[in-house]
Design brief:
Length: 239
């Protein structure tokens, strides 16, 4: 392991820090639009919407088929008999996404790490399992000064498969014009990120967290924080 052409990052839990339920603020806003002036009903509806999302993620985990935000909104509308999609989209026209999801932040070390890689002429990519459209992610990346530091992004809401399926990893490598064997993936999820990337030939750095590594963890390097990644790269990239 003497050189890499690209370093690829997971988003949620790696570059970004957020609550466990990414869309909870959106569900809460939609609930208050749908049942105004009834706080108890709005809270109950918020829980129902979050449960629809939880089941959707469970399906994607077992099938590795991707899901999109509009699919999720249609499912919620059909199940609850309410126009959830209209409530969400109407609110989106009136307020910035940041107003829904103030809990979304990027790791304090993210900008410096990506800048260091850019100066080293190493390509940077981002790969996220997500319901969200690209515009949602780009809003946060631009807000926190990361947009210009990432060469290519692949969001599974735009393709048919999610990590750990090989297709998302290969798609990002193709866009970056690098071979998987010349890329290194940084992520926090042992199966989705580390095993998925390893299976297509990438080297990996696992950011250790509350996810159990399991017997099949094959990370090349293990760290405890994103701020340790630059030093962990060692001689993989030249400064």
């Amino acid at each position: 392991m003497t050189d890499v052409d690209a370093v690829l990052f997971d988003w949620g839990g790696t570059l970004a820090v957020h609550t466990e339920v990414e869309l909870i603020d959106m569900w809460r806003t939609a609930a208050h639009v749908l049942v105004p002036d009834d706080l108890v009903s709005a809270r109950n509806l918020t829980r129902q919407l979050a449960e629809v999302e939880r089941r959707s993620w469970a399906r994607t985990t077992s099938s590795m088929r991707s899901s999109r935000l509009m699919d999720l909104l249609r499912e919620a509308s059909d199940e609850l008999g309410l126009d959830v999609a209209e409530a969400v989209l109407a609110t989106a026209q009136e307020a910035h996404l940041d107003g829904w999801t103030q809990t979304i932040t990027h790791h304090p070390a993210a900008a410096e790490l990506l800048s260091d890689l850019q100066r080293s002429e190493v390509k940077c990519g981002l790969l996220s399992n997500t319901h969200w459209p690209r515009s949602f992610h780009e809003r946060f990346l631009e807000r926190d000064g990361l947009g210009g530091l990432i060469d290519e992004c692949v969001y599974t809401s735009e393709i048919d498969w999610i990590k750990p399926h090989p297709e998302p990893f290969q798609r990002l490598c193709d866009r970056l014009q690098v071979e998987p064997e010349r890329a290194l993936f940084v992520g926090d999820r042992p199966i989705d990120d580390i095993q998925g990337a390893s299976a297509v030939g990438m080297r990996t750095i696992w950011i250790r967290n509350t996810y159990a590594p399991g017997d099949g963890l094959v990370a090349d390097v293990v760290v405890d924080d994103l701020g340790e990644v630059w030093n962990a790269l060692g001689d993989l990239v030249s400064s």
